[in-house]
Amino acid sequence: MNEIVILSGKGGTGKTSVAASFAVLSKRAALADADVDASNLSLLLDPRVRRKEVYRAGLEAVVRLEECGDCAVCAGVCRFNALRPSDTHTRPAFQVDSFLCEGCGRCVPMCPRGIIEMRERTVGEWMESDTRAGPLVHARLEPAGENSGKLASLVKREARRVAAERGLGLLLVDGPPGVGCSAIAALSGASLVLFVAEPTVSGLHDFERAADLARHFTVPAALCVNKWDIHPVAADSLEAKARKMNVRPLQRVRYDPSVVSAQRRGKTVVEEDSAAAQDVRDLWREVTAA
Amino acid sequence: MKRNEGMTIAVASGKGGTGKTTVAVSLALTAPGTVRLVDCDVEEPNAHLFLNPVIQRTNPVSIPVPEINREECRSCGRCAEACRFGALVLLRGRPHVFPSLCKGCGACSDVCARGAIKETDRTVGVVEEGTAGAVAFVQGRINVGETATPRVIRAAREMTSSARWTIVDSPPGASCAMTAAVRGADMAVLVTEPTPFGLHDLDIAVDSARKLGVPCGIVVNRHTPEDLRIRDYCVRQNILLLAEIPDDRRAAEAYSRGKNVVDSLPGMKERFVALWKSLSAALKGNGDFSCEGGNSLAQISDDALNERTLLGKIRTGVSSARNSLPGSVT
């Protein structure tokens, strides 16, 4: 199965607009939204949710406060400062700060009273939906949730399964910004990663780091400069940098307010006529030829 | 964690590319008093591109990972049992360490009966400190291929300062990275744009800020009179709308060239001075704005004044922000 992953490094460069357009143009693809933090692909594709599952991942320590002897041994061994004197309990006791707990369980055997246990966290949900552009697997991480990388991996795994079940030969993955755990999860196993980058100083800086990530994990990569005419010189340097990093520059997309106005109408760029729509269609042709 | 003396304002957003860095840098350049900018978007730190700081110190951020002394090890397997991250596993009966999976908790050393585990520091990123003109500058930067984003963010946030204001440039999203940056701030400024994506992701960021107990206000970037969905959202959710920055291709062009909008776009400085006024009012819990360094306050443009009058009509979340604040700044 072919797997095209859309990434950017910097946020807001047009990943989702490109991914949703590709979804509409391809007609024979399964879709995965691996930006589980701020999942937007479904907003343009009218999803009907067919299946919804709770996502549990990772553990966190829980202290039975009533029995706590306030000895502070747990706080002494925790490297993440996650065990702190409770400011809500009626008498002195230590409690776990779940924002800081990494779930290592080191405190559990150290507690002289044996009153710390590990509990699974619920950190979100994932969904399998039908959309007008094909089946979509997407997710929603709880606010302040952890393990977004694992959830992104799960979304991709389920989307591969859906693609196989329906005999679809292509998986399109809308990736997250950044180069951290969910970006790594999104690009693993890709046949091609397409970077969507802006010709700005930060766009150039972030693209370099993202391209470095693709190189680190040896994934073939291509580049689309979005809004290239905002700063044509920077667009040239982006592509020059890309060639140097073994990333193939493809069709550019111009700055066109119709991209945002299409989004406001709940449509993808290519479902309306505009200069940018033509650019994206040309880009899709090049991507499929690659 | 040591407390900073001043106030911390975290600039965040659910969606990426909405203008967090532009707002954070602009706030730093127009601050009424001593100011520090802490770039916590450690996967893609960008504020330095607009501030051009001189870096004076670079501090590594590292994780202690186990190293096994083969001569002492009897392959009992307790270390592998204790590790919950799959970073220490038995391969052909002998323990093997995968440093990139290790979170440095130390559980393996606790259980090793022979004291055969020694920890060595593995660097995953850096925190750099410097200055950019009058702005004190701190930035975290994670090494490409590493996943310990919140760790590097916390290291940057823990740098103390005597500056009156600390502006935190947060990573996008609403999960552990964003919360590591925003937690403990006196206020979160959530930057968004008036689009379906912008609104959807803003709502998630608001939930995260609320879960952290950090009062928030909203800045709409690329504002256009045709789309008032964010304004409606602020009214519905009773959240303070701090400012609306008009959609302007010139802003995109200035940004693309690494220019800060405050110095390169007419009227922008006044907008941010006005934004500071709203922020200070929200933080103090009253409409009184006495600011020592506010020399340009007299020059607020008509436009900015009109905007503030308009915003004044939108009932704000100041009262709820007020209740959860420890006290007022002097």
What labels would you give this structure?
heterodimer, A: 290 residues, alpha/beta, Rossmann fold, Alpha-Beta Plaits, nine-stranded mixed beta sheet, 9 helices, 11 strands, B: 330 residues, 2 domains
What features would you describe in this structure?
The complex is a heterodimer of chains A (290) and B (330). In chain A, 33% of the residues lie in helices and 26% in strands. By secondary structure, chain A is α/β, with parallel strands linked by helices. Chain A has 2 domains: 2-56 and 124-289, 3-Layer(aba) Sandwich (Rossmann fold); 65-114, Alpha-Beta Plaits (2-Layer Sandwich), CATH 3.30.70.20. In chain A, strands 3-6-7-2-8-1-9-10-11 form a 9-stranded mixed beta sheet, sandwiched between helices. Chain B is of the alpha/beta class. Chain B has 2 domains: 7-34 and 162-323, P-loop containing nucleotide triphosphate hydrolases (Rossmann fold, 3-Layer(aba) Sandwich), CATH 3.40.50; 61-123, Alpha-Beta Plaits (2-Layer Sandwich). Chain B has a 9-stranded mixed beta sheet, sandwiched between helices. A two-stranded antiparallel ribbon of chain B has the order 4-5. The two termini of chain B are 22 Å apart. The interface between A and B is large, with 64 and 59 residues.
Our estimate of the beta-strand percent of chain A is 25-35%
Query: Runs of chain B with pLDDT <50, length 5+?
Result: 286-330
For the terminal residues of chain A, how far apart are their CA atoms?
Answer: 15 Å
- CATH H-level superfamily of the largest domain in chain A: P-loop containing nucleotide triphosphate hydrolases
CATH topology of the largest domain in chain B, what is it called?
Answer: Rossmann fold
**What number of domains of chain B?**
2
* Percent of sequence in beta strands of chain B: 25-35%
Class based on secondary structure composition and strand pairing of chain A: alpha/beta
The oligomerization state is heterodimer
